[in-house]
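In this section we walk through a basic example: taking a raw amino acid sequence and producing a predicted 3D structure, encoded as discrete structure tokens. The instruction is simple. Fold the sequence below.
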Amino acid sequence: MGVALFVVSANHHDLTISDVERVAQHAQNLSDTLRDTVSITGHAVLSTCNRYELYLDSTREAAEAIREQLNGATTQGGVILREAAEAARHIYAVASGLDSMVVGEREIVSQMRTALSSAREAHTTTPLLEQVLQGALATSRKVALHTDFSAAGRSIVGAALDMANSSGCERAACDDAGRSPCDDVAIPRSNWANIRVLLVGTGAYAGATVAALKDRGATHISVWSKSGRGHQFAADHGVVYTPVLDLMSPAVVILCRGTGSPVITADALREVMPRRSPLTLIDLARSRDVETTARDVEGVRLIDLEVIRHHVPAACQGDIERAQQIIADGLADLDKQLVGRAMDPVIIAIRNHLGTMLERELEKFPAGGDVPAERSTRALQRFAATLAYQHSENARRAAEGGRAEEFHAAAELVFGISLPEPQPVKGSS
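The resulting token sequence is shown next.
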């Protein structure tokens, strides 16, 4: 595999969600650099609630410079650069859900498709990026078909809803071994028919959230959005639009705006909580839609991405191993395809050569009017004769140079036909 593929990655494995958000914000300043740097042939951006990644077709120096700039936005470093085979393996694992916060989640597939589609619209994709990303998406479909990840309903949204139905702790505090007091708490999949839910925002996770709620039997779902898209979202998803941010009626408020500033503050909660029953807040925004101090308000339980990261249930090991084998097979296919791409310059040169020869014949035709069939036939015969003459002369020169068998093998490979073996001429040595 070539060395032109790179991944610059800031994700939940190596950074806090807050640092991932800082990287994503800082990356907005790199658009001109990514577009104008000659050594960056193309790029695609994958931005989700727990990762920000740049897929680059570039030189190593350019990719390293981008990594260093993004690393400066974090409090602890942790932006990773992957190259060539390692980069492709990472992209395939991401698309298949194996690198997700909730291993096996399927939401990442649509996010990967969006990344590729956006790169196409911006004209920043390249043949290499197309081949790798399309291969990763194709492999993810095979993973979905041959594992039970989808049947298990594994997703960040699903994990958050299951946590809301449990009595586990609401903090992300863990001991030195990475465990928290609620690691062993069962997370039941309950019926939400009688639970009032308010969805705040119509961001990337909003549609998946509605689907997950309805899958659990929820019937009392309303949506509020400051963007003006709430009416249409409600109509499209069969929920109720509410014109105000209601903190009194719902038992659960799920937030997925991610616009950069909290929409629910601790002060607002302190004002309403004495007059209502306990409230569960699920914040799915990387940039936080709820102030973190909200978890200190009596009667409030806050489940955010950091909490989810520490308490998601493990995936079935058998499914993981099957997915890993499918990814390995997909990468092997990708290697073969990329090896074949090495012949692209040769193929282009041959096509150009043949095109030039054909243009010479076409120049002999009159500029306008019909061309008699007999004249067209003669032109095609001359074109064929010219091709045959060149190959014949090359064959004779190869034989004279002692390379008859080599030319024979090459000709069979090029033309895709079985050719007679070269015959020694009587009297020759």
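Looking at the output, two observations stand out. DSSP finds 15 helices and ten strands in the chain. Residues 168-189 have pLDDT under 50 and may be disordered. In the next section we compare this with other chains.
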